[in-house]
Amino acid sequence: MRAREEIIPVFVPHLGCPYHCVFCDQRRISGQTEAATARTVREAIQKAAALPRTGAKRQLAFYGGSFTAIPLPEQEALLAEAKAGLDRGEIDAVRLSTRPDAVDEAVLERLKRYGVETVELGAQSMDEEVLRLSGRGHTARAVETASRLVKAAGFRLILQMMTGLPGDSPEKDLETARRLIALKPDGVRIYPTVIVRGTALYELWKAGCYREHSVEQAVEVCARLLPLFEEAGVPVIRLGLNPTEELSGGQAAGGAYHPALGELVRSRIWLEKARTLLAETEPGSAVVLGAAPGQISQAVGQHRENIRRLCAEFALSELKIRPAALKNGEISVISVEKA
Ligand code: SF4
Are 63 and 44 found together in one domain? Predict the structure, then answer.
């Protein structure tokens, strides 16, 4: 089980990033418009320090943008405030995210000096065509090189990937996952592509040059990705963009935006397992399946979708799901009454 964490978020939207990935508008994605300064960091730490300790690891997280591409004076000012918070014992760890090609030994040495613990790299895809069509401006090899450097320097490595980018396919997403697993990250975040207003991707979509990655397609492919990572012992620490008022309020114009995407994916994985288990069931049967106590709602599915689909596919007269002494993700047949 992962240690509990208390996140102190500081957004550095687009600050210092000279690139224009087609899907990116960090301001709209993060819901922030003001770039963080040393003062923002100090105030965020002070606010958190005023609250009683809960025993959770208190982690300052620089989100968004490409942290190590921020001009050095601003970057060091942010890092110095974070380090001061660490030295005073007000926070326990610092993490940040950046681009693979904005990392080298000197950069990592600087991050070490300021006490950074975790480096997140936006890999997004390991397919060269997808990277090119998405305007990433780096290669898959850059992801591999940067990942090795990050690990060799003793940081925790988190890799981010996206699904449904321009030129993408489920097979390419699966290949990306395999290549990321080979880099032995400490965790991954999966972000199915969302079409945000004001981005180049939005224009491509409006012009009919990009077909959106629907929620259903994202659920389908992520239900294949998640078991790959989990079987390899790589925790998936986030699935889907964090919901924000801006995105939910209409800035997400299309694509795989759903406030409970992770829940939908886990529900789909459960559906696939139930399908295998029910394969030999006679039509007209009344079935009771077991699921781990904390996973009943995932097993049932949003709006009882799994129950509805399984009843229709296997012509069941009734399907119930009951809590059973199972681990998360496991499923059992409690009873089958034939017609
Ligand atoms: S590198 Fe990151 S911050 Fe910069 S445009 Fe691409 S996704 Fe946005």
Answer: yes
Number of domains in the chain: 2
The CA distance from 223 to 306, in Å, is: 14
**Are 234 and 327 within one domain?**
no
Spell out which residues line ligand 1, taking CB within 6 angstroms: 14, 17, 19-21, 24, 26, 65-66, 99, 122
Q: Which atom of ligand 1 is nearest to the CA of 65?
A: 3
Question: In which domain, by residue range, is 293 found?
Answer: 266-337
Q: Are 171 and 292 contained in the same domain?
A: no
Task: Report angle CA 66, 210, 215 to the nearest 5 degrees.
Answer: 80
Do 253 and 273 reside in the same domain of the chain?
no
Q: What is the pTM of this model?
A: 0.93
CATH number, domain of 294, equals 3.30.2320
> Looking at ligand 1, which residue's alpha carbon is closest to its atom 2?
65
Q: Is 127 in contact with 172 (CB distance < 8 Å)?
A: yes
- Taking alpha carbons only, the member of 329, 306, 307 closest to residue 226 is 329
* CATH number, residue 111: 3.20.20.70
> What are the CA-CA distances from residue 302 to residues 236, 270, 271, 335 (Å)?
21, 12, 12, 24
Q: What is the pLDDT of residues 134-165, one digit of tens each?
A: 999 999 999 999 999 999 999 999 999 999 99
d(CA 143, CA 141): 5
CB within 8 Å of 182: residues ≥ 6 apart: none
- Same domain, yes or no, for 171 and 278? no
Question: Which of ligand 1's atoms lies nearest the C-alpha of 20?
Answer: 5
In this structure, the strands spanning 93-98 and 187-192 are: unpaired
Of all residues in the chain, the percent with pLDDT exceeding 90 is 84
Is 223 found in the same domain as 283? no
Unique residue bearing structure tokens 């730490």:
45
- pLDDT tens-digit profile of 31-77? 555 678 899 999 999 999 999 888 899 999 998 778 999 889 999 99
The verdict on 199 and 328 lying in the same domain is no
Give the residue, by CA position, lying nearest to ligand 1 atom 8: 24
Answer with the one of 231, 259, 287 that is the final residue of a domain. 259
